[in-house]
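Give me structure tokens for this 139-residue protein.
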Amino acid sequence: MASFPFELVSPERLVVSEEADEVTVPGIEGEFTVLAGHAPFITVLRPGIVTARSGSNARRYYVRGGFAEVNPTGLTILADLALPVEELNDARFATEIAAAEHAISLAHDDESRAKAQQQLAWIKDLQALVVPHHVHASH
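Here you go.
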């Protein structure tokens, strides 16, 4: 399988810069997978998991949002926040949820409030998938 350059960048740092065989990205309109030679485009990201594969190795990164640009030379993701999935835990999600709730409180119209509420829902859904929880039965 042909590889291509992949970079994941957050405001704090270059998270990853490597050759990848395929990268699955959480776009605002749904997940998409980039392979070498993918048609160029730019899209907005939703909170989710970016999965980069090279051979049999797969690395996963949480992104809060941002943009992805696919161009003839590769894929660049400019994320609002990006970190390895291994760093996700309830404390990290509490911070993410608080930030989303703050964005809802600052929303100045119905459209921006709806977008902020959607972000919060995505983060909570992602937390349910990523962080194991103990289920307590109630009698």
